[in-house]
Amino acid sequence: MKTSAREAVRAVVFTALFLLLLLIFALIASGDQYAAERARMIEEDLRGRDITDQVVLDAMGKVPRHLFVEARYRDSAYADHPLPISEGQTISQPYIVALMTQVLRLKPSDRVLEIGTGSGYQAAVLAVIVKEVYTIEIVEPLADRAQKLLADLGYRNVTVKYGDGYQGWEEHAPFDAVIITAAADRIPEPLIKQLKDGGRLVMPVGGTPFVQTLTLGTKRGSRLDTERICPVAFVPMTGEIQKRKEK
Ligand code: SAH
């Protein structure tokens, strides 16, 4: 081969290699963008406040929150506020997800019931920490979407059900922990019944639509001892609990 031909081949090979490297860097950078935002969220918004449970911090460092929000909000998925998820519902602020998870003091062997699947994000965080997660959502399209997303992302220990969470999930009771991510003026009685002795329950409790009190309950015998944690703003729990209020 002539020198000029050899040089031309070399130039083509080098260009191809250069383009390949560029593509790899672009791919890494696009993945890293969210990893970097997740790391910032963990340090500033969670550890920077009072989230000290390493298990919770690690779980939230793993779950790709940007895949649980609508595509148009992806770039603010890790920001310090809640986001709309469609059907007029919201995905909670990361700090509130972390706080609610932390106060439950979960163990790897636990079985947890969640009322209000929404996007499925809180369920995914729980699924990283515990053995089994059962979650109920009253808006059918949300239940369907969350079920599919959780399955696609490989969270095999989450079971999603479409329905009213007021009556809990008798078939899988009792639970080590119960988390309700929609607000009502009181804690539904069936959910207290389905909690194990010594188990923990967390819920935004309050009659007003804009501010409620995040409340932690600990089951002692058949009684639930409650303590107030902080003011929060959640969407209302709908279905049976509202019908009963009217009576
Ligand atoms: N945990 C969710 C956010 C919850 S928003 C997440 O991580 O994205 C509150 C959700 O509770 C909404 O999706 C709403 O439809 C649902 N919800 C309200 N009342 C309910 C009920 N009675 N039973 C089950 N889900 C309910």
Quickly list its features.
7 helices; two-stranded antiparallel sheet; Rossmann fold; 247 residues; binds S-adenosyl-L-homocysteine; alpha/beta; seven-stranded mixed beta sheet
Question: What report would you give on this structure?
Answer:
The protein has 247 residues and is α/β, with parallel strands linked by helices. It has one domain (46-246): 3-Layer(aba) Sandwich (Rossmann fold), CATH 3.40.50. The chain is built from seven helices and nine strands, in the order H-H-E-E-H-E-H-E-H-E-E-H-E-E-E-H. The chain has helices at 3-47, 54-62, 94-103, 121-129, 140-152, 189-193, 240-246; strands spanning 83-86, 89-91, 111-115, 132-137, 158-162, 175-180, 195-205, 212-220, 223-232. Helix 2 packs across helix 4 (121-129). The longest helix has 45 residues, at 3-47. The protein is elongated and about 90 Å long. The model has no long low-confidence stretch (mean pLDDT 93). Residues 85, 89-92, 115-116, 118-119, 121-122, 136-139, 142, 164-166, 181-182, 235, 237-239 line the site of S-adenosyl-L-homocysteine (SAH).
User: In what order do the strands lie side by side in the largest sheet?
Assistant: 5-4-3-6-7-8-9
Bound molecules: S-adenosyl-L-homocysteine
**Helix/sheet category:** alpha/beta
Count of alpha and pi helical runs:
7
Note the gap between the termini: 93 Å
Gyration radius, to the nearest Å? 23 Å
Question: How many independent structural domains?
Answer: 1
CATH topology-level fold name: Rossmann fold
SSE sequence, one letter per element: HHEEHEHEHEEHEEEH
**E-strand count:** 9
Uncertain residue ranges = none
Q: Main beta sheet: strand number and arrangement?
A: 7 strands, mixed
Shape: elongated
Mean pLDDT over all positions: 93
Please identify, by name, the CATH architecture: 3-Layer(aba) Sandwich
Helical percentage: 25-40%
- What is the CATH top level name? Alpha Beta
Our estimate of the beta-strand percent is 15-25%
Question: Looking at this structure, what is the CATH superfamily?
Answer: Vaccinia Virus protein VP39
